[in-house]
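Quick log. Single chain, no ligands specified.
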Amino acid sequence: MIDLLEYALSLERHRNFARAAKELGTSQPTLTRGIQELEREFGTTLFDRTRQGAFPTPAGKILLERARTISNTFEELKKEISSLQGLQRAELKLGVGPVVAQTWAPDAVASLLEKHPQVDVHIKTYDFWELAPDLLSQTIELAIGEVIPDISKHSEIHVLPLPARPIRFFCRTGHPLTRLDNPTLSQIAQYPMAGPKLPLRASEHFGGTRALGKLSTSGTHFEPQVSCQTFDVCLRIIRVSDNIGIAPLAQLSRIPVDAGVKLIPFEAPSLRTNYAIMRLRDRTLSPSAAAFLEHALGSEEAYHSVCQVPEPKPRPKRRTATQAAQD
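-> predicted structure:
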């Protein structure tokens, strides 16, 4: 129908079928059939054909007035969609779990904005069991966080698993656990934990260890004795107490050497992340979300490429005056 309206607008400008067809890049018979189709659609003559040219009838003038509005609106629509495809005007609504929000997600957003600075980004931090409802309601377009069993109940959610990254316990320097070469989980569990809310799978290891924490009353997660979603807050508590912490190894790798914390030498195959990027299945992603996915995968890989926690170098002993004199 848009093409037929363009036929009518061109015929009005030129008053001649041959010249209008040339402007439109079509044949005169095609243009003639198009105008006839419009007239059949509206059940009236839209143009009077005379030796002097084609002139709109009263009904034709009404149609042309509306056609100009429709044509202009359609052109604006094409420009808006073109701008969206080129990320000249776009927004990204992103939901992330607390650990992802404090590790590599900011790097991914920064990388996106470096290439597309005009994108409006809205980031909301969620507890991991809250991501699915807002994804399903389309409050957010992408969700990044822990994959919990409830996700499998929603067939409309597509899950893109991220690599399983190592997680480690840590404590303050001078903590009693640092005097043990290979502490066991039962020895670690004698001390309270300060950290974020953990998925239920943590209860396989921590269940029954009251010092670490307990299952939430809602049954959705394991709650450390000191529950705090902000890593810096946990770190400050751990540095001055016997609380232990838990975090991805790559996050611990970025703690300054002199920060007063130490990695606890305990490893287990299950102490790994289980994160994914989630989206609605069979839905076309917005250009901004599609672009973010590319940056997200690269940023996640780059962040976790550093997985060594440096040990503080021992300070050299102060030399006595006698030793200095002997040199």
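Residues 167-263 form a domain with the D-Maltodextrin-Binding Protein; domain 2 fold (CATH 3.40.190.10).
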